[in-house]
Give the backbone structure.
Amino acid sequence: MVELCADFEERLVRNKSESRLLHKESKRNLEWSEAEMRKTSEKYRLNSYDGESLPFENYIKIDNTTLAPDEVAKMIQTHFAIEGRKE
């Protein structure tokens, strides 16, 4: 189990990214999407608490607010001892 988290402000920035808008039709209405993000984060807890006991045998939580996707992928690969792609 991998839990990714990022600061809310960073999530708002990512919500408007070209890739997100291209691949997620629901995100294209930016006003609705941002309002939904705010409402959801106020109503629900979206991430575990630091140190919280979770029912997963093999788990990692990564705050990827300032990390590049390839850096996060490498962290996951290392944690779960996954061999890299052979090219």
In short: Residues 2-79 form one domain. The radius of gyration is 15 Å. The chain has one domain: 2-79. Helices lie at 8-15, 18-23, 30-43, 69-79.
